[in-house]
Amino acid sequence: MRMKMFAAETFEAAKAMIFAEMGADAVILSERETEAGVEVRAAVDRMGGVSFGTSANEPLFLRDARGSAGHGRGVENPLFSRVRDALLWHGAPQRFAERVAAEGAGRNHGSLSDPEEAIAEGVTRLATCDPLPARLENDVILVGPPGHGRTATAAKLTRRAAVARMEVMPVAADLDGTAGGDQLAAYLELERGQIRVCQTADALFDTLKTLKDEGRRFVIDLPAINPFDDDDLASLQDLISVIRAEPVLVMSAEGHPEDQLEAAKSFARAGVKRAVLTKLDVVRRRGGAISALSSAGIAFSHLAVTPFIGGGLVPAAPSRLAALLMEDTPGDVIALRGAA
Predict the structure, then answer these.
(1) Residue 47 belongs to some domain of the structure
(2) β-strands 27-34, 37-44: how paired?
(3) Among 54-63, 133-142, 263-272, the least confident range
(4) In a domain, 80, yes or no
């Protein structure tokens, strides 16, 4: 038996190297991630034939995804391929795409035929959906990078609570002097005096103390936070500890997957546990954002699928995330949909 370690940027690239050098009978023994990508150990019988079946040391999710026992590349599970390819088209990192495909299609080989159902099953195993109740149980402080839709989300949460017959006071923390209060009032079609606008940290603390003393629930629209600025994140952590409101990330589906992942992890370290995913109506490829929040351990709260303030938030669920990951996908990628 001949064994060799192969290094590449992705698992698929490593497999291509293995089969090009060792032939179709090569067996993958192990895989591990490195800073540069992955390292994959493979083996082949010196005489050209495989001396054993799929190794128990091969990652379980990849072994399951193959769909049936066999050697080397095995019998490819077509549903696994369709799910993986759909997620890759949507910009999801390859590792995440393969994990979702393995958890959804690999574990359910033969019992599922619809890629959307398989994605929903995979997402269920890898991500958490935990929507905020319409009648808020905790005060909320909305955080996020510039331009991701915090003010619109504050208005949507306020309007949603009102429909559920609960009064929530919108608070614009206009600490950076960007007229956030005027924008929030305009979104809600209210006069500026009907909301709370605070232009200094002291004014914000005084306002929140008054609201708490009165037993009133509130949603704070905080100024933009740069997730790559240590000072910004330190200030956010201090503010969260003082205010004692639940921090909810407002994150746009726009952007590069690696930037989205790093930003999500930064906010997770600051104490964020839930997020509202925005701008889904103007982005075709949503895989990067969904992968980023899942990998950072942040639960999906709501999905902003329209720019309209009324009814603009949809509670997150695996089936809804799956629908977003199948929408707009080219026909040749989802050809398996509905197949027996």
Answers:
(1) yes
(2) antiparallel
(3) 54-63
(4) no
Q: Are residues 30 and 174 in the same domain?
A: no
Task: Provide the domain limits for residue 198.
Answer: 140-316
Of 115, 106, 107, 108, the C-alpha closest to 82 is 115
Calpha distance 28→5 (Å, rounded): 10
Angle between helices 115-126 and 94-101 (to 10 degrees): 110
Tens-digit pLDDT profile for residues 132-182: 999 999 999 999 999 999 999 999 999 999 999 999 999 999 887 777 788
Supply the pTM of this predicted model.
0.74
Is 129 domain-assigned? no
The residue out of 38, 69, 100 marking a domain boundary is: 69
What would you report as the CA-atom Rg of the chain, rounded to the nearest whole angstrom?
24
Domain boundary among 35, 69, 103: 69
Q: Which amino acid is at 209?
A: K
Q: CATH number, domain at 280?
A: 3.40.50.300
Distance of alpha carbon 202 from the chain centroid: 35
pLDDT in tens, 1-50: 677 888 877 777 778 777 777 777 777 777 788 777 778 888 876 544 43
For residue 328, the tally of other CB atoms under 10 A from its CB is: 12
What DSSP character marks residue 176? T
- Higher pLDDT, residue 72 or 78: 78
pLDDT-based confidence at 338, cuts 50/70/90?
Answer: very low
Assess whether 58 and 185 both reside in one domain: no
Whole-number pLDDT of residue 141 = 97
The strand pairing partners of 299, in sequence order, are 274
Helix, coil or strand: residue 140: strand
The two three-digit tokens of residue 298, written as one number: 């942040």
